[in-house]
């Protein structure tokens, strides 16, 4: 037991350090948590225990749910066409480019190349949402469109993994049926729970939401899907309902950012091996460039087509270039099923995690769209304004 407390203290200390650095430097806390995770994993051999893995996984699930729940249905309807186009191109071109490059440039076999394409095609809803919240963009029309496009991209990733490898079993059919029922039943059920038990200090409504997310995550995993996918769908299904309960979302966001997401982002950093970055830096850099180039080739022209401002278009493209959750999941799936070896796994995971950091830092520092902020800028926006005034 004492060992668990010691490990927990190490993780929370790193989370606190990341938060302080984030505030002082004006860098997204998600990126700082990844950075301190890299240091912790390589300098002090930070241990990833089963309970850490669970907290990190649940953090990704709830964060994804919040991203879906904060998408305004009316805004989604107005941005539907652009979100579908941008999201689809954000998936298709990196998938094709990564797969072809792995096969014909690095000489990976067909299955390994497919895993590479899937891993590089993703966009991280978790990273994008965390950045949106800190920057004050989550409620803006731009933020809504980007979050919806992220869902389209990751849905393409999940479908590609299913079609190319896992197949569609009877379990998937049952899970799909359960999700359809859940989408239509969750809001009326939540309305009753919130009406009967809401407003108590014990927060029964939040516990109800957590229960639903955990149950659906379990069903998703045993059906061969991923735990975060139903969370996003249920979040979007409840978005109109939560317009009446913004305070509950705020409380959930505070719980998640304080307790769960630090484990998720720090764990992502711990998975990065500095020695692997050094010995395989060439392949990692090439894959990162391939992913970002493919995203720019697909997404940037689409933003121009939909008449985004040039700066906003680049910002959108950079955020769509991020990757984390589904990218690492895809790589781990390939390793577990022996479609890729340990070296290939290290290259893909390092590339995916760097793609969560590099595009986001560039976007926030040089292309932040101040005109898109729909509410008073928070720490990130304020820092950007201050830096510009200094320049």
From TrEMBL:
The gene is gerN. InterPro entries: Cation/H_exchanger_TM (IPR006153), Na+/solute_symporter_sf (IPR038770). Pfam families: Na_H_Exchanger. It is a multi-pass membrane protein. The chain crosses the membrane at residues 12-39, 51-71, 83-106, 112-133, 145-166, 172-194, 254-278, 284-302, 314-335, 347-368. Residues 13-361 form the Cation/H+ exchanger transmembrane domain. This is Na(+)/H(+)-K(+) antiporter GerN. It comes from Sporomusa acidovorans (strain ATCC 49682 / DSM 3132 / Mol). It is found in: Membrane. Belongs to the monovalent cation:proton antiporter 2 (CPA2) transporter (TC 2.A.37) family.
